[in-house]
From TrEMBL:
It is found in: Endoplasmic reticulum membrane; Microsome membrane. One of its GO terms (molecular function) is arachidonate epoxygenase activity. GO terms for cellular component: endoplasmic reticulum membrane. Gene3D superfamilies: Cytochrome P450. Residues 1-18 form the signal peptide. Its cofactor is heme. It is an enzyme of class 1 (oxidoreductase). The gene is Cyp2h2_0. The keyword Oxidoreductase applies. InterPro entries: Cyt_P450, Cyt_P450_E_grp-I, Cyt_P450_sf, Cytochrome_P450_fam2. One of its GO terms (biological process) is epoxygenase P450 pathway. Belongs to the cytochrome P450 family. This is unspecific monooxygenase. Its EC number is 1.14.14.1.
Length: 165
């Protein structure tokens, strides 16, 4: 009982102390957050109701994870077009952070992402991506693969990815 009381007190204190730093939103419960405020079967409608009460930018907690919701065309346009640099990052998923250590085009953010993207696009262009010649080579390799599969006559076969050897 003491532990639960301390946990509730800490959660309430945290939400009160952070009110100045974050958009408004419903008070979150410890561990479950605002899941009880949301209808998971009709999420757009429940977010619409919350936006009517708290405005087009509000905060909800999905479990312990804080989520800032932008509801409405004008707010999303302002965030993604007018303030694109401030909103260009991705959320951090703990599993991806542990597996990929912040590297990779899909899981990185900021300057690392820009450098990896630039490198990948340059490399793909050097190999002919976006040019007509690569399409013809892919079609040729696909024809060789189809012929190889037809020639097996239902036997087990091993695919050689290094060419049509």
């Amino acid at each position: 009982l003491v532990c639960i009381s301390c946990l509730l007190l800490f959660a309430t204190w945290r939400s009160i102390s952070q009110k100045e730093k974050q958009p408004p939103g419903p008070i979150a419960l410890p561990l479950v957050g605002n899941i009880l405020h949301l209808d998971l079967w009709n999420l757009p409608e429940s977010l619409k109701k919350l936006s009517e009460k708290y405005g087009p930018v509000f905060t909800v907690y999905l479990g312990p994870q804080k989520v800032v919701v932008l509801y409405g065309y004008d707010v999303v346009k302002e965030a993604l077009i007018d303030q694109a640099d401030d909103f260009s990052g991705r959320g951090i998923l703990p599993l991806f952070k542990k597996l990929f250590k912040g590297s990779g085009i899909v899981t990185s953010n900021g300057e690392t992402w820009k450098q990896l993207r630039r490198f990948a696009l340059t490399t793909l262009r050097d190999f002919g991506m976006g040019k007509k010649s690569i399409e013809e080579r892919i079609q040729e390799e696909a024809r060789f693969l189809v012929e190889r599969i037809k020639n097996t006559h239902g036997r087990t076969w091993t695919l050689c990815l290094l060419g049509h050897a």
